[in-house]
Design goal:
mainly beta; Jelly Rolls; seven-stranded antiparallel β-sheet; six-stranded antiparallel β-sheet; about 35% strand; binds 2-(3,6-dihydroxyphenyl)acetic acid; binds fe (ii) ion; dioxygenase; RmlC-like_jellyroll; metal ion binding; homogentisate 1,2-dioxygenase activity; EC 1.13.11.5
């Protein structure tokens, strides 16, 4: 069970000291000539120095050795991570992936080795774009840490808890929880069982909780339910590997000690986790279907007002009570890209074929919506209050960007389901014809 301590709050100014070294945080300044306990000071920037105060993110780390003490980086081979979006020809078709494979029993893959890019857009060098990855791993990262120089990772475990050690401390992230580890933050992941999940990466900008508009001051994700680790360090002089994702490729270097040697830290640029069951769900209580934006947990905004480079949206269990309404998602064509995954249960619009650990992609302006069975049932059902999606958690990564599927996503994973289009075959023509003159 999760017995770790956390700090609660979103976008808060935190400070934390490992209790083994009380007073390790310099009390009156950021950069003393000599730090308590002989620690080194290091600054981690999450935004430009000159970013407006409301967006400005940085943290001061007090550590046993500065991060710079490492050998040169070399390419890390055998990775299915990419930001090359031209591997395949564009494909506007609705896509559905069966559950992505877990490593087989005689394979050993840690989180880094098990990361595969499915689709994405943009360029980490231009600090604009996203990538969607899936991971499947069965061993812990042994004396190996990872950091992403390209952007932030929003990690959605689907199977298996992740024990994540970061420079800021430890967190355990279970399925139905998510975490965000931002650009530059080093972490290592331990797993106890074959584990699988999804990663939404955003280049160059950070996630926020959405504005609430007329909803008011409260609702959706509550800032106090976002949890940040408390300082924890290890003083271990061993060969340690640091893997970096840099401009879409992985590189590896070695150093002679654990990078998890931060004794205390202070700032507002931190990793955090969030339990999806704590989301305060809002929905229509009389008629019509609310847009899925009502279920936005986190958003990464573009420069265009109200338009997200990436929204993280969930479809949690909730009561459906609308009168004279077609209750499932409406048929539509969207100017945004919609990538969906399933943590457990069944998605209301597609009871078959879209399975936990699998995915769908409905690209810009590609028509989609409930399958024929769902339509037929929803147009006939007695509209009593109904708890939908009990025992279910589907989610969507929605982006204003056009997404390209990688070679891994289209071919190598062997999970694309060629039968997907069939769930929309055989719509009955119900048209009753014009009024007779
Ligand atoms: O396509 C989907 O299943 C996601 C979705 C759900 C919904 O309730 C309304 C619109 C929408 O795109
Ligand atoms: Fe949709």
């Amino acid at each position: 069970m999760d017995e770790l301590k956390y700090l609660s709050g979103f976008n808060s100014e935190f400070k934390s000291e490992d209790p083994r070294c009380p007073g390790s945080l310099p009390p009156d300044q950021n950069s003393p000539q000599n730090c308590p306990y002989g620690l080194y000071t290091e600054h981690l920037s999450g935004t430009a120095f000159t970013a407006p105060r409301v967006d400005n993110k940085r943290t001061w780390l007090y550590r046993i050795r500065p991060s710079i003490g490492h050998d040169p980086f070399k390419p890390f081979l055998n990775s299915n991570i990419t930001s090359n979006w031209d591997e395949q020809e564009p494909d506007p078709n609705q896509m559905r992936w069966k559950a992505f494979d877990l490593p087989s029993k005689n394979e050993k893959k840690d989180f880094v080795e098990g990361l595969n890019t499915v689709c994405g857009s943009g360029d980490p060098r231009l600090k604009h774009g996203i990538a969607i990855h899936v991971y499947a791993c069965n061993v812990s990262m042994k004396d190996r840490a990872f950091y992403n120089s390209d952007g932030d990772f929003l990690i959605v475990p689907q199977q298996g808890a992740l024990k994540i050690i970061t420079e800021f401390g430890k967190m355990i992230v279970q399925p139905n929880e998510i975490c965000v580890i931002q650009q530059g933050m080093r972490f290592t992941i331990d797993v106890k069982e074959p584990s699988r999940g999804y990663v939404l990466e955003v280049y160059g900008r950070h996630f926020t909780i959405p504005d609430l508009g007329p909803i008011g001051a409260n609702g959706l994700a509550n800032p106090r339910h976002f949890l940040t680790p408390v300082a924890w360090y290890e003083d271990r002089d061993v060969r340690y590997e640091i893997v970096v994702k840099y401009q879409g490729k992985l590189f590896i270097c070695e150093q002679d000690h654990s990078p998890f040697d931060v004794v205390s830290w202070a700032g507002n640029y931190v990793p955090y986790k969030y339990d999806l069951s704590k989301f305060m769900v809002i929905n229509s209580v009389l008629f019509d279907h609310c847009d899925p934006s009502i279920f936005t947990v986190l958003t990464c905004q573009s420069e265009i007002k109200g338009t997200a480079i990436a929204d993280f949206v969930i479809f949690p269990p909730r009561w459906s009570v609308q009168e004279h309404t077609f209750r499932p998602p409406y048929y539509h064509r969207n100017c945004m890209s919609e990538f969906m995954g399933l943590i457990y249960g069944h998605y209301e619009a597609k009871k078959e074929g879209f399975v936990a650990g699998g995915a769908t992609l409905h690209s810009i302006m590609t028509p989609h919506g409930p399958d024929v069975n769902c339509y037929n049932q929803a147009t006939k059902e007695d509209l009593k209050p109904n708890k939908i999606a009990e025992g279910t958690q589907a989610f969507m990564f929605e982006s204003c960007l056009g997404l390209a599927v990688t070679k891994w996503g289209a071919e190598t994973c062997h999970k694309l389901d060629a039968e997907y289009y069939k769930c929309w075959k055989n719509f009955k023509k119900n048209f009753t014809g014009p009024v007779a003159k």
